[in-house]
Amino acid sequence: KKLDHISQLPPEVLLKLFQYLTPEDLGRCSQVCTSWSRLTKMGSLWKHLYPVRWARGDYCCGPPGDLDEEPDEEWVQSRQDEGRAYQEWDEDADVDESEEAGADSVAISVVQREKRLLNGMIQYLLPAVGPSVKSIVLAYSSAVSSKMVRQILSLCPNLVHLDLTQTDITDSAFDSWESAGACGLLEHIDLSGCENITNLTLEKLSLGLGELRDLRKPEVPINLPAGPDCEGGVGARQALVFKRGPGSLVSVPMHVWVLDPMPPPDIEDVAEWRRNPDGRRGAQFSPPPASGVCCCRRRGFRTNSSTPCWPQYVTMGESAWCGHSSCCGVWEAPRTVETLWEAPMGPSRLRTKCQGPGDQRTRNPESLRRLRFLSLSGCFRVTDLGLRLLSQHGGLPHLKHLNLSGCLLITGMGLQELVLVCPSLEDEHFYYCNNINGPHADTASGCQNLQCGFRACCCSGE
Ligand code: FES
User: Which of 68, 86, 111, 118 is 20 to 30 A off residue 360, Cα-Cα?
Assistant: First the structure.
């Protein structure tokens, strides 16, 4: 068999050459032979993914640029026009199946191309290179769905930078972050203009970033039983469910769920509360504050704190529930206490569950909750309760940039509570509504959405 020159190159040299190719070229190379196909799926070639730009022929592949870099206005306008055209075509296609109707439109075909690219990545590329991916930029994508984002996040457990600006995703996109440390390496998340997300996303994010509390000092007293294995009854005041790992010399984190004394709500009750928020059977009501100190339009509804999706019981708008400890004094967040049995060589590492292939990894607790950039600009469904959920599990000690412009339901008190656990926050990178009397009012930057035109802002139209 006669070999050509290029096939005789050692794999490391070939890999070096592949680094100069565009994602499109790499796709072609992967079809040459089995060994090339294996080489083109090396993680080092796919650290930074820009599918929205790639679908339009812009094959950038370096790390994302400056944090404050605003995209070109013309580029944003083109993406919005494409999105509108695709949406109209998609709705028409549902009615008369006339898929041919808009096939000639450049805008529609570009979005279709982007959708094919995303599906291809999820199906063929990410299962191989997902753990190596550091950045994914999906800003202004008209094709991405919550399901796609959910798949991408579960395949890329070591993500550092995620940009979902101006997409139609919902809370379900972040389902894979529902375990502690699931996105523990995340440093940058941009959810600007994601109008469908609610406090639930912030709850998942906060949990996924990991736990920074001193694990050896539980916050609530727990009566540990004498035996090594125990299963307490659910609903008990101090219900315990924990198991000891194999071998008594191994450090094993235990999860002890401290549940509310109330029994879990009946599923029919919950359905009834949703239909009729005023007639919440089985719920406890706390008395309204004596003076008018509460800045929120809450109704004192207290739900069973052990139910994972409890924020959903609270309807938005008139009855939006702030979550302030001062106005909702009887509320207790669901608490997870982790205790660590001392290892003979010292308890310095926390074992967390990994979402991707390879499954288990060990992380230093100090490397968790590394978030530096968070933008919720225009996410008008977020309330003080979401900010509180975000500040749980050890706060955000590295957060420098926080954009809450257009978050119309938050208050100064909620902001204050969050800022207290963000010691690195820089005032020039701290944005919130001009009409909120919040922390660092003199030095913080104001609302960024005043001139935006397409993101929520209480001053739009003035
Ligand atoms: Fe109030 Fe923009 S949200 S000024």
Answer: 118
